[in-house]
Amino acid sequence: MAFEKVTREQDYSKWYNNLVEDADLAQHSSVRGCMVIKPYGYAIWEKMQAELDRRFKETGHENAYFPLFVPKSLFEAEEKNAEGFAKECAVVTHYRLETDPDSEGKLRVDPNAKLEEELIVRPTSEAIIWNTYKGWIQSYRDLPILVNQWANVVRWEMRTRLFLRTAEFLWQEGHTAHATKQEAIAETDQMVRVYEEFARNILAIPTIMGHKTESERFAGADDTLCIEGLMQDGKALQMGTSHFLGQNFAKAFDVKYATKEGKLEHVWATSWGVSTRLMGALVMSHSDDEGLVLPPNLAPIQVVIVPIYKGLDQLEAVTDKMDPIIKNLRARGISVKFDIRDTHKPGFKFAEWERKGVPVRIAIGQRDLENGTVEVARRDTKEKNTYELTDIENKIENLLALMQEDIYTKALNFRDNHITLVNTWEEFQEVLENKGGFISAHWNGTTETEEKIKQATKATIRCIPFDNPQEDGVCVFSGKPSKERVLFAKAY
Amino acid sequence: MAFEKVTREQDYSKWYNNLVEDADLAQHSSVRGCMVIKPYGYAIWEKMQAELDRRFKETGHENAYFPLFVPKSLFEAEEKNAEGFAKECAVVTHYRLETDPDSEGKLRVDPNAKLEEELIVRPTSEAIIWNTYKGWIQSYRDLPILVNQWANVVRWEMRTRLFLRTAEFLWQEGHTAHATKQEAIAETDQMVRVYEEFARNILAIPTIMGHKTESERFAGADDTLCIEGLMQDGKALQMGTSHFLGQNFAKAFDVKYATKEGKLEHVWATSWGVSTRLMGALVMSHSDDEGLVLPPNLAPIQVVIVPIYKGLDQLEAVTDKMDPIIKNLRARGISVKFDIRDTHKPGFKFAEWERKGVPVRIAIGQRDLENGTVEVARRDTKEKNTYELTDIENKIENLLALMQEDIYTKALNFRDNHITLVNTWEEFQEVLENKGGFISAHWNGTTETEEKIKQATKATIRCIPFDNPQEDGVCVFSGKPSKERVLFAKAY
């Protein structure tokens, strides 16, 4: 596949789509709205998974697995949740195919194999999980339950985009049960902070933590916390959510526990998740017109070494020089690819690894051999420098750490420069139109105003940030009194 | 849940079901045929996954992810494969629910949201993957493709058993594409050997590698290799398969590559998989009437320490003594649980950890503190010994290694004692009825005879072992000439 050269400036959306395919991250499949995650893209997702999974376990969670299907009667038990997802449910109605008598070699659905009750392919697992927890919880001794699941879910989408919005996606969903409201709220808070720290230190993406407004809440939640990132085109992306579910699911599934005092009480719940959407956030936060830019902490290949040589003798000389260095780098946990393919020229290789976002490229040719040097190129800044081989392993390790920081700082500066305080409706529209990013503005707190602003501008309230300063003001839209600013943005 | 005391002798099947639930491995869900894998069971599965994944990567494979759904027209493209799975397919026909006007608060399938083409929930992914590979393969430079997927699959089963046979199960499926027949056959062979080594060294289960007969082959394969284990009740269990798919899928999906010489050739394929069925094999190979027995290499908790004390002072003294030991054990990569729950008595804890198969239990009471000793109990043999604390970490580490070996050796001896050579039909029936296990017998090589033996005895040919000695004989059933013995058994 040739990389169709479209810059972010020219067409951000096309740039994104091309990049995802050309960097071998993912592609569309022949199933409407479902993607194929290619090996290189999946390797990045695996790194995200490993980092998240470690954090979940460190905070006391265990993994488990619940069924893909939810019987319709369970699905509809928590009404708000069911209503929220009903319009995007894939439904299994039959369990057998048969030979099509009208068409040789073809199959058709066997009409005699209709299910008595339809099965919903999980769009989220609260229903099936709370129906299970009912059997796990009798007394306070059984609480808390701190479980996470890595799974695929399906939400039928009409307009899909690779990673950002697909009918099937991969995610993790934590589902916890607690004896007290206070404990459940603390868990909800803890997990959104885990996401924020992960986004910051691993994805190198600064995010803003806050509460969703009522209209943007998860269906069935009493409160939804989120992390919001800002993409290079000035649009926001919801990167993770953590829901305080109150006793809604416990009531819908009649899950009670005996307290120490012997009273029966409904259990308190949370759920929290991030998905392969993070891959989209990653691409859109750091990449450039040449392709993917990966923070070193997520790169499946952190260092690529491209030898420049003529003939096997020269290759052997380069290999002899680099072999111990590669070994030393790997011993430090740095993943290194020594690209000795003889089917491609160095220029081709440079472009390929640039497109795929490998953080550090080392080129070594004959003159380098003579001088005891290599050429080191940073993917993020495209800076090239000649390094002496002495102590090269330390230099590379330090460079990777520096790049991780620099990529984060660049994204942070961009984000901070794109939080604009506005005080009038004219300003609001003007900033939204010409600058983009987050707009910090007063809002009168009603769903009605929020909806009108959305209708007028497509901007939504991304969140009410944690520790939001309280100040008197007037709503930019309605002119009514307001106690705090909230963050608006156009969003993915 | 109380552990219902049923011995293997009394009712092997009930013993198995109870154990799986009472050791907190899995349970039935409210979805017909689908199970919930509980945290403790899932932790064991994660260990299996990590060990397998490492082996796949070491043999050059990468992970990727393909859609859950297969459009019917793709599914039916490879006819034998489609025919083989048609009768057990869950089918998605609709993509939306709507409010049921006849029933308040209920939902129904929206008749206006019928899919133009039905989607099959993947029972296996050859079809969707080969349809994707078509776009990945142009020339010999694109080969081989060595991809694995960790995923859930659905095969509708009427009679299900936890782990052994469930409608939804978790598995890995490798799908590789090669330029030559020879290379594909070598890959098929390599992967069954990876499974055998994994079963031996990690699961501590000896397996026999061999070829399936034509009638037991994977639908769409030219050859199926397998590993067959023997359970304690004398029944065999197919634990993994590796298929040489010839050019069947390449032809069905028209996948050709340009050779170095510029000719167009169909690509050669393999697929190979193991599933959560391995959890069933694990339980049935080693466990006893008291519960699960885990080989140390798979145990989420390898060592449990149960303090025996009265009052906080005594607990503190025990804790002071054990803390550095726990730290040292963990530094060696040994997972240790220090069970200081004050809600349960030591006897309860002993029974619980025994039921859950924790390999080594260390008990320490006041007299031990005075003597500088602990009591160490092995789960597999139930042997108890007093150990002096001097150098205890080494002793425990060595004990775990020894137990891994002993558990394997025990299973190996059992297996070897249950391979019986028989030469007559009477003997065949007698051994099958009274002794069970593998029966090594001559067979005339026809599907017809194989089928008749199955009808008469429920025994099937488990495999034709690798490096099977060639010897003249007569088929035990038909009396016709035979060139080699094959392995029969009743199987799960």
Topology:
2 copies of one chain form a homodimer.
Chain A (H helix, E strand, L loop, with lengths): L11 H11 L3 E3 L6 E3 L1 H20 L3 E2 L5 E3 H4 L3 H7 L5 E4 L2 E3 L7 E3 L4 E8 L4 H11 L8 E10 L13 E11 L2 H23 L4 E4 L11 E8 L5 E11 L1 H5 L3 E3 L5 E3 L1 E8 L1 H10 L16 E5 L3 H21 L4 E3 L7 H10 L4 E5 L1 H6 L1 E6 L5 E5 L3 H25 L2 E3 L3 H10 L3 E5 L4 H11 L2 E6 L4 E5 L6 E9 L3
Parallel strand pairs in A: 3-9, 17-18, 17-19, 22-23
Antiparallel strand pairs in A: 1-2, 4-8, 5-8, 6-7, 9-10, 10-16, 11-12, 11-24, 12-13, 13-16, 14-15, 19-20, 20-21, 23-26, 24-26, 25-26
Helix pairs in contact in A: 2-6
Terminal Cα span of chain A: 27 Å
Shape of chain A: globular
Low-confidence stretches of chain A: none
Largest interface: chains, residues each: A-B, 65 and 65 residues
- What does the largest sheet of chain A look like? 12 strands, mixed
- Mean pLDDT of chain A comes to 97
Give the C-alpha Rg of chain A.
26 Å
**Helix count of chain A?**
14
| Helix content bin of chain A | 25-40%
Overall strand count of chain A: 26
* Beta-strand content of chain A: 25-35%
Tell me which oligomeric state these chains represent: homodimer
What is the structural class of chain A? alpha+beta
